[in-house]
Predict the structure.
Amino acid sequence: MFWRVTGFLSAGSAEMDSSSRQGMHFIICIVSLEAPGQARRAKSVVMEFFSGSIGWIEVICGPMFSGKSEELIRRLRRAMIARKRVQVFKPVIDTRYSAEEIVSHGDSRMQSEVVSRGGEILDRVDWRSEVIGVDEANFMGESLVDVAQRLADSGKQVIVAGLDTDYLGRPFVPIPDLLCLAESITKTLAICMRCGNPGKHTQRLRGADDLIVVGAADMYEARCRRCFEPGIPKQTELDFLKGRKI
Ligand code: ADP
Ligand code: ZN
């Protein structure tokens, strides 16, 4: 028999002493009591309490259309309701819907600041900020790892959202390193546009070899493991071009 953590139910914070800005943070994780080879038999909830203004890193990752931005905005709104000082950053490359806001595919929006790479966040951060949100972390480069660590070490709650794999299904820098360093990880799944199952892949629909090609539903769709076709768009385009010559 062994304990297995099966998921985080909730994470939040509560002010204990607003004058000294001491905070109590809590994470509830669901723990299952299981015997090897047997079905899950019992569930209990364990709460861990953190006192003081301890920092941490939360990562929200998954494919496009899986609700990463919606989840990031939801958490940041809750922090604002809790009267935390919140700062939000997004990469300059992503101006698909708005230049000054993070925007979800379902049109949730939140004001944000634009940076050209992760390292710039340290120049732009207001050190009074208590919660730092970062959207589209996969466009921020490797420097975001050190930035997130430094912000968390200085007592800030850092919430990072980004693609965990690229259009070929490969781990997408800097998310893998952030996953190792994070206190909390949320994997979001989309709906596969081919079969309706939960999908963890981002399917590029039109041919291009570049790692970063910014686009939305015109360029990408969510696919499950079975329906994902890495490299197929290029093939399709070549066939299409061949067909035109004939
Ligand atoms: P992400 O940040 O992961 O790209 P968003 O938060 O921007 O995701 O968008 C999530 C929203 O996208 C969903 O609430 C839904 O309205 C819409 N959506 C469009 N296509 C899909 C899909 N294939 N699966 C799930 N949601 C989708
Ligand atoms: Zn599928």
The longest strand covers residues 2-17. The CA atoms of residues 2 and 111 lie 45 Å apart. Residues 1-53 form one domain. Confidence is low (pLDDT under 50) at residues 1-47.
